[in-house]
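Regression test case RT-17, inverse folding.

Input:
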């Protein structure tokens, strides 16, 4: 009996030490003021290297998303700006309003739309809210160094990750040329290039065709056509598939050098 109590006390002590360690190890991440990243346009110093991130709903950031933002803040050597419903309007250019269907999109597709909007009108860096694997300084240096380079990116790692399209011939072309395609989770772009002009134009064509269906109800955060619940857009329809389509068209203007890559583990 005495031996069992001793073992139990040892186990409880180890558990308490683990919990205390976990709390203090994550203290800075939990208590960081992420609202500091939610700047209005007038408060942004555009002379600095900027990485745009997006959180398009009013739902709270999860711990893993906070952890990823914290990682981006301290590892990229760039200014991280978080675009949310609180500051989005300050960045919308009056002559280039959001498409009328924007407000009906899933939160994920709102983020997909905005990354292209910001890359076209503002350029600089974009990152999913995922952990980076190092500094972005070299990438920013490269985008400024070469006049004919519009995009700095990392290469797709496998044909299974290319953007899906119902055009079977184009989809196969993506798979055959995946090493020439950029990953969609992090990159740096120049503003007002033909690459993102074409992407934005086709996004708007897609939304024109689907706006009436999108209006029918409020959709889940990660809604996609593949779920067969009535949502009209495929997961990668206004992001990955268009990026890969036009990345092939303008491939000579993409440089796969200078970015460290990103993690896809435990980010949600």
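Golden output:
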């Amino acid at each position: 009996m005495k031996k069992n109590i001793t073992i139990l006390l040892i186990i409880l002590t180890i558990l308490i030490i683990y919990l205390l360690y976990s709390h203090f190890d994550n203290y800075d991440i939990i208590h960081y003021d992420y609202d500091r990243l939610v700047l209005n346009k007038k408060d942004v110093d555009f002379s600095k290297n900027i990485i745009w991130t997006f959180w398009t709903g009013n739902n709270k950031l999860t711990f893993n998303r906070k952890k990823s933002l914290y990682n981006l803040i301290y590892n990229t050597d760039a200014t991280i700006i978080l675009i949310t419903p609180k500051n989005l309007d300050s960045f919308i250019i009056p002559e280039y309003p959001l498409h009328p269907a924007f407000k009906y999109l899933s939160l994920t597709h709102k983020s997909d739309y905005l990354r292209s909007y910001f890359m076209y009108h503002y350029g600089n860096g974009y990152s999913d809210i995922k952990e980076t694997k190092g500094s972005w300084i070299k990438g920013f240096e490269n985008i400024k160094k070469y006049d004919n380079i519009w995009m700095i990116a990392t290469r797709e790692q496998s044909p299974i990750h290319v953007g899906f399209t119902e055009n079977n011939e184009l989809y196969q072309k993506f798979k055959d040329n995946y090493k020439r395609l950029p990953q969609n989770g992090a990159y740096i772009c120049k503003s007002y290039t033909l690459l993102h002009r074409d992407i934005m134009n086709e996004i708007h064509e897609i939304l024109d065709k689907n706006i009436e269906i999108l209006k029918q109800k409020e959709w889940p955060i990660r809604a996609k056509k593949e779920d067969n619940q009535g949502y009209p857009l495929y997961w990668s329809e206004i992001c990955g598939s268009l990026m890969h389509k036009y990345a092939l068209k303008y491939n000579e203007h993409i440089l796969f050098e200078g970015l460290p890559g990103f993690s896809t583990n435990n980010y949600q």
